[in-house]
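Design job #97: recover the sequence.
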């Protein structure tokens, strides 16, 4: 799984209990980044979880894997990320389009894609944007670090281009990004993907790291049997 500015397969720790306003509903918090390759590998497992729990709301918390930069990836980082793609493909049985590395100028910058998800959130298209960015990046060999690519993705979702671009620059979007980062930190999450469950005023870690779709369903059923 990816950690902020790094990747590790060994980190795993519980997030602290966090007191939130009492409510009867259960909410799953999915802490992730659209440009995290392990989150792409986890997509089938998240889909299985959604299908298992259609009555439970899933909210995305943007993790922010790597901050804004215009600098191209150096050779060391390119090799590192390409190897991560190979590891995820082998472990998670998902496909990657490695033409990306020939066709694009990669940058270690995921905050723009996170902002795109936040703009879509205001329109009720958060999950759709998250998945569409993953598709563009990992399947279509397009670079979501580029604003124009994100605008193209938004347009395919029916989001008006100029309004989207304005939203990407809006103060409110940056404030929302920082709010997601603050929640990530309050949850104690440093690696993606991670799942927490908010239930009856408390938020606890459900799972951190990749797992298979069947394992994800078992994890949920085990948690659900103990509430």
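Job complete. Output follows.
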């Amino acid at each position: 799984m990816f950690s902020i500015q790094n990747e590790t397969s060994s980190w795993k720790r519980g997030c602290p209990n966090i007191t939130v306003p009492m409510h009867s509903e259960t909410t799953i918090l999915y802490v992730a980044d659209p440009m995290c390759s392990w989150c792409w590998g986890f997509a089938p497992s998240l889909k299985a979880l959604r299908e298992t729990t259609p009555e439970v709301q899933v909210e995305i918390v943007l993790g922010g894997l790597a901050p804004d930069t215009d600098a191209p990836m150096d050779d060391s980082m390119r090799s590192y990320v390409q190897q991560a793609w190979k590891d995820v493909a082998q472990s998670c049985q998902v496909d990657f389009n490695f033409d990306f590395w020939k066709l694009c100028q990669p940058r270690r910058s995921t905050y723009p894609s996170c902002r795109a998800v936040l703009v879509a959130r205001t329109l009720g298209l958060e999950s759709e944007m998250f998945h569409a960015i993953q598709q563009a990046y990992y399947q279509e060999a397009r670079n979501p670090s580029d604003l124009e690519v994100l605008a193209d993705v938004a347009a395919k979702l029916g989001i008006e281009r100029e309004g989207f671009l304005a939203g990407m620059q809006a103060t409110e979007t940056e404030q929302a990004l920082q709010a997601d980062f603050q929640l990530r930190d309050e949850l104690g999450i440093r690696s993606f993907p991670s799942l927490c469950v908010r239930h009856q005023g408390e938020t606890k870690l459900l799972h951190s790291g990749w797992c298979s779709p069947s394992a994800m369903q078992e994890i949920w059923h085990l948690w659900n049997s103990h509430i």
